[in-house]
Amino acid sequence: KNQVEQSPQSLIILEGKNCTLQCNYTVSPFSNLRWYKQDTGRGPVSLTIMTFSENTKSNGRYTATLDADTKQSSLHITASQLSDSASYICVVSAKQGGKLIFGQGTELSVKP
Amino acid sequence: DAGITQSPRHKVTETGTPVTLRCHQTENHRYMYWYRQDPGHGLRLIHYSYGVKDTDKGEVSDGYSVSRSKTEDFLLTLESATSSQTSVYFCAIFGDSNYGYTFGSGTRLTVV
């Protein structure tokens, strides 16, 4: 069964600190993996997208990694800001333009 | 969100009444999707469309129907709303592998 599992479920950190969110998947055949940020009351917004051959992708203070062998991905946030408080969702696509499998998300709260 | 709007943003309706949610895009993309988001679940696909008058079911399609008479509009209808359909509904469009998916801001539907 195609599944995407994220950990932790929620996380509280202090402003300025770094954090890493995890995503494990059992989707096959794998096409790509996306990380989305979802602010409260808004739709998800894409942060990064990685295909099978990519190990790392950065977007400002966000760096995503992918290990296709172990089927794991991480999202590292550097020097967190209050505006980083949101839900971060890992999404795996089974094939080009195909079905998306969503993780349940990690709820990040950045405190001053 | 640029290029995609959902209406209404909020709606409260009574059990047994019909409800229609609208998704409008200005990007001329072929693919459009309806998802629902509930606590404890990732986004789940209700229905999707791959062109005018071309639609198909997702994983949680029971109790929902869709229509796409124009490229820019994708309508989701609850024929007879039930309390289990209380949720936040997101529309999404898909451009290409680089453009990725863009989500609307969501419609919060409460069935009382």
How does this structure look, described?
The complex is a heterodimer of chains A (112) and B (112). With 112 residues, chain A is mainly beta. Chain A has strands spanning 4-7, 10-14, 19-25, 32-38, 45-51, 56-59, 62-67, 72-77, 86-93, 100-102, 106-111. Chain A is built from no helices and eleven strands. Chain B has no helices and eleven strands. In chain B, a hairpin with a 2-residue loop joins strand 5 and strand 6 (54-57). The model of chain B has no long low-confidence stretch (mean pLDDT 93). Classes of the chains: A mainly beta (112), B mainly beta (112). Chain A binds chain B through residues 4, 32, 34, 41-46, 49, 89, 96-97, 99-105, and chain B through 1, 31, 40-45, 90, 92, 94, 97, 100-106.
SSE blueprint and pairings:
The complex is a heterodimer of chains A (112) and B (112).
Chain A: E1 4-7, E2 10-14, E3 19-25, E4 32-38, E5 45-51, E6 56-59, E7 62-67, E8 72-77, E9 86-93, E10 100-102, E11 106-111
Parallel strand pairs in A: 2-11
Antiparallel strand pairs in A: 1-3, 3-8, 4-5, 4-9, 6-7, 7-8, 9-10, 9-11
Chain B: E1 4-7, E2 10-13, E3 19-25, E4 31-37, E5 44-51, E6 54-57, E7 64-70, E8 73-78, E9 87-94, E10 101-103, E11 107-111
Parallel strand pairs in B: 2-11
Antiparallel strand pairs in B: 1-3, 3-8, 4-5, 4-9, 5-6, 7-8, 9-10, 9-11
Please describe the structure with a list of short key phrases separated by commas or semicolons.
A: 112 residues, mainly beta, six-stranded mixed beta sheet, five-stranded antiparallel beta sheet, 11 strands, 0% helix, B: 112 residues, seven-stranded mixed beta sheet, four-stranded antiparallel beta sheet, globular
What can be said about this structure in brief?
Chain A has 112 residues and is an all-beta fold. Chain A has strands spanning 4-7, 10-14, 19-25, 32-38, 45-51, 56-59, 62-67, 72-77, 86-93, 100-102, 106-111. In chain A, strands 2, 4, 5, 9, 10 and 11 form a 6-stranded mixed β-sheet that branches. A 5-stranded antiparallel β-sheet of chain A has the order 1-3-8-7-6, with no helix packed on it.
